[in-house]
Design goal:
With 549 residues, this protein is mostly helical. It has helices spanning 2-14, 27-43, 48-58, 61-82, 87-96, 102-107, 114-121, 129-138, 140-161, 166-175, 179-187, 189-201, 203-233, 236-252, 257-261, 266-270, 298-301, 319-327, 329-334, 336-346, 355-366, 382-400, 407-417, 433-438, 498-514, and strands spanning 303-305, 311-313, 477-480, 487-490.
């Protein structure tokens, strides 16, 4: 019911009619409506002030297109500029650009001593100090060139927005500090146009609908997180499986054991803040998807270990961790208790259709021919069933010598070897394709994306000094408007609590993926931007992306 309410609100927000139950639709119209609903839901997860800026910006999609074009050129120029350096050095340049005005402060006024750079760094987090000193002293010419590139881009940005109303200019200045927002609006221009038109006609109604959507989704997220935490805490076997699976996940993604066991300060978990990669310069080109916000390993797993090594759960695992677990049968075989926890949590009438829900339901659908009829409702033997389903998949792949097999091949193998899997039951289909369709679960098959390994050596805690000002009355950078020689402040980005931003930017990325066509492992998409140097790409295990400061 909650999912239906969200979808209906989404349609009302963008002005799309809700079809009557049972009304015939073409596949294209269904797909369009899913896209619209997913993207609208993504937008409304941002704080209300940011949502208002988004709606105002949507009134002028031409500005968004022009800004995105400028970003594409600038990020390409930056990638070309750093391409001659090692991957580690390239990452250093991208990380330096994450911190507002840091490169500018080092570059302007001539080359500085280490003490002078340290005086600048007092307002910046510790994890960038060593890098800033190194490049400020040994690579000053390069720092100056990057600053010149930034100044030129700022001037061009001012030129783009100068002809728009003052309120729109301010909205664009603000949301440019949230790079994933501009990317979303530019990627889904048809939605942007409709939202802008709807907002122009009836802003009060749009704001009201957005507030309603935000309330429903925020409450659902909180309920799901609390339920998952309680479930894991009450089941030691499931908690142990989650921890061991998280260790494997970290290893496959390039983290060391030290990275996994390092305990963050408790306040850093609650108030973890993060500066995104610069919208203009982008993120390292070898990342396989939009990755604007670097965050630590434990955000994907939904827990961290404190200084005593105790497991501290703060939410459910991310889409990426969940997809990784269910994609590989070896994971189900090693950690069937974790699979049991997922089934318990993501089945039931009260569950919304989110990213993790779809992964879990699709796994049940794909293995339905071998599962007992009461599989989703009877947990007593479920872990044993999950382990034998895993063994079946492993055995048939091994016999055929391939990583993926068709359902028909797997069914035939099971018929010929069913005595090896006594907990499985052929012919007892627990659900049908039509039932899954009625549940609103799309058919999405995604090979797990390799997560860029992030080394967080310093945590920004509540009360610590920050590199940005949050008051609009104290802007950091001032640029001259190209057409109007009046000093116009470009507000510094707010210090973002990652727990808030993560929900919004992960939500819109994950929900949007659910509306895409099926992507099978052998049809893995190519990264949008080519890497400046060859990077090995393998189906499952890929070379580490390298340590990031």
């Amino acid at each position: 019911m909650k999912s239906l309410i969200i979808v209906v609100f989404g349609f009302l927000l963008i002005g799309v009619s809700v079809p009557a139950i049972g009304q015939d639709q073409t596949p294209s119209s269904k797909h369009l409506m899913r896209e619209d609903s997913a993207a609208v839901n993504a937008l409304v997860m941002y704080p209300d002030t940011i949502r208002l800026h988004i709606f105002e910006a949507c009134e002028y999609p031409a500005a968004i297109v022009s800004i995105a074009s400028l970003q594409k050129k600038t990020s390409d120029d930056f990638a070309s500029f750093v391409s001659g350096y090692s991957k580690s050095e390239q990452e250093d340049y991208w990380n330096l650009a994450r911190y507002p005005d840091l490169i500018s402060k080092i570059a302007q006024g001539g080359q500085k001593s280490e003490d002078q750079i340290n005086a600048i760094l007092v307002d910046y987090p510790a994890d960038i100090h060593e890098t800033a000193i190194k490049y400020g002293t040994d690579y000053f010419d390069q720092i100056q060139k990057i600053d010149a590139m930034q100044s030129q881009t700022d001037a061009q940005f001012q030129q783009i927005i100068s002809d728009y109303p003052v309120e729109t200019q301010q909205a664009l200045r603000d949301i440019i500090q949230y790079p994933e927002i501009i990317s979303l609006l530019n990627d889904h221009l048809s939605l942007t146009v409709r939202v802008g038109d709807r907002f122009r006609r009836n802003p009060e109604r749009v704001i009201h609908r957005a507030d309603s959507l935000n309330f429903v989704e925020t409450r659902q997220n909180a309920e799901d997180a609390a339920t998952w935490k309680e479930s894991i805490q009450q089941n030691p076997d499931e908690a142990n499986d989650l921890q061991q699976a998280a260790d494997d996940y970290a290893t496959e993604n390039g983290y060391s054991q030290e990275d996994v066991t390092a305990a963050p300060p408790p306040d850093a978990v609650t108030n973890y803040t993060c500066s995104p990669y610069s919208y203009w310069f982008g993120y390292p080109t070898w990342y396989p998807y939009d990755y604007w916000y670097p965050y630590p390993f434990w955000f994907d797993c939904g827990f961290y270990r404190d200084h005593a090594g105790k497991m501290v759960i703060f939410g459910s695992p991310s889409y990426y961790f969940t997809n990784w677990y269910f994609y590989h049968p070896e994971n189900w075989h090693r950690y069937p208790g974790l699979g049991n926890a997922y089934i318990n949590h993501y089945y039931g009438s009260a569950r919304s259709v989110g990213a993790n829900t779809i992964i879990v339901h699709n796994w049940v659908r794909d293995n339905k021919n071998y599962l007992p009829k009461d599989f989703v409702h009877n947990p007593s033997n479920r872990s044993a069933v999950i382990k034998q389903v895993a063994q079946l998949n492993i055995d048939v792949r091994k016999q055929k010598g391939v990583k993926t097999v068709t359902p028909a091949v797997r069914d035939q193998f099971f018929q010929n070897n069913r005595t090896k899997y006594p907990s499985l039951n052929v012919g007892q289909k627990i659900t049908t394709a039509q039932e899954e369709k009625q549940r609103g679960v799309p058919d999405v098959i995604q090979q797990p994306e390799r997560q860029p390994a992030v080394r967080v050596r310093g945590f920004i805690q509540e009360g610590s000094r920050q590199p940005v000002q949050t008051s609009p009355a104290q802007p950091i950078r001032v640029q001259q408007d190209v057409q109007h020689p009046v000093a116009r402040p470009i507000p510094a980005p707010p210090v973002r609590n990652f727990n808030d931003i993560n929900k919004a930017q992960e939500f819109h990325r994950n929900v949007w993926q659910q509306t895409q066509p099926v992507v099978h492992p052998q049809q893995q998409a190519v990264p949008r931007t080519p890497a400046p140097q060859p990077v090995k790409q393998e189906p499952v295990h890929r070379e580490p992306t390298g340590k990031r400061k």
